[in-house]
Amino acid sequence: MQDEADDPPSAVPPPPEEALESGGGGRRTVFVALGAAAGLAGLTAGCATPPLSAAANPSVPGAPAPRGRLEGQSVLVTGAARGIGRAVCLAAAREGADVLGFDIAGPASRHVGNAPATPADLAETGRLVQSLGRRFLAVQGDVRSRPALARAVDQAVGAFGKLDGVVANAGIMVPDGLAEVSDEGWRDVVDINLTGTANTFRAAIPAMSARRRGRMVAIASVLGRMGAPIAPQYNASKWGVIGLVKSAAMELGGRGIAVNAVSPTGVNTTLLRNPRQYAAVTPRFVPGRVPEAVAATASRNLHPLGVPWVEPEDVASVVVFLLSDEARYVSGASFDVTAGLGAIYTA
Ligand SMILES: NC(=O)c1ccc[n+]([C@@H]2O[C@H](COP(=O)([O-])OP(=O)(O)OC[C@H]3O[C@@H](n4cnc5c(N)ncnc54)[C@H](O)[C@@H]3O)[C@@H](O)[C@H]2O)c1
């Protein structure tokens, strides 16, 4: 187990002299002069701004052997039992992180269209993480409970020595229109998708602030960036997640915490691939009676890259980037994984 003292916050390099120059012409001159002075010597003897990691630039002479991009880190992932959450756990473990997987592993709302995840699903995520040589802690809990998340953070810090990243991924879809959604269905979506994300972030703030280092990632949705005639409670919750991410990024930056969102289009998971959801993407059809092939064609036609949906791993790779030092100055952003659908936004 790594001790906090062994792992100080990554040093922020001083601004290059070029950045201190105010005038346009002088700026260029200083930049060119610096470049010439650094030259080949900089490449062999070490640059003023070192590579982010050996993994980022393993060909630098004398660099240590490449390591995973999250080597020695620990990450808490909600909704870890299956789908995108499981893919994030595995991608993080593959890059060297220990993982705490948090999941309700049972029914979250009686209004969703898909079957609930099970404790066996969560255990399977753990088995797969451990098969990659990393540690895994399974915690069964509900993101609607901030105390449950606070306890999970304590468990992660107790087991792994620190908490480097949290991924607020747990979420549900209730595919009902505004005219028919029940009060309970509306509340379940907003409480889990939006308040659950805030609860996850809030639970991690003390541990991350103490080390002045942390990375928070929320799984929003393309439906958090554009309107759609289905499931307004889902859209509203995901727009809210992006607003939360941007505000948290501004508030928490001074504590060394970066906060970002990933906004996928439809993803190949049970949340998307179930009959009630098919009816929602092709609303002229009778709920529960839309063949998957019809829904897939309708969905494929929405995506410039010509796929009906993306894979959980396509989302996980962007999450890993945002957890890694390669993204050390990325904060307050929403990254699309939309197979081109996001090109429809106005800006
Ligand atoms: N699948 C898609 O098409 C898609 C697209 C965009 C965004 N998303 C978002 O990605 C995230 C993951 O979705 P997925 O597709 O992997 O779905 P999924 O249903 O396969 O997995 C969701 C996981 O979250 C867990 N969960 C649900 N409510 C919970 C709660 N209250 N507390 C703790 N855990 C809870 C579930 O048990 C499940 O394991 C969600 O936030 C979803 O809105 C999904």
TrEMBL record:
Question: Which InterPro entries does its entry note?
Answer: NAD(P)-bd_dom_sf, Sc_DH/Rdtase_CS, SDR_fam, TAT_signal
Q: Which domain of life is it from?
A: Bacteria
Q: Which PROSITE patterns match?
A: ADH_SHORT, TAT
Which one Pfam family would you cite for this protein?
adh_short_C2
Q: Which UniProt keywords apply?
A: Oxidoreductase
Region called Disordered, residue ranges: 1-24
Q: Which family does it belong to?
A: Belongs to the short-chain dehydrogenases/reductases (SDR) family.
Query: What is the name listed in the Swiss-Prot or TrEMBL entry for this protein?
Result: SDR family NAD(P)-dependent oxidoreductase
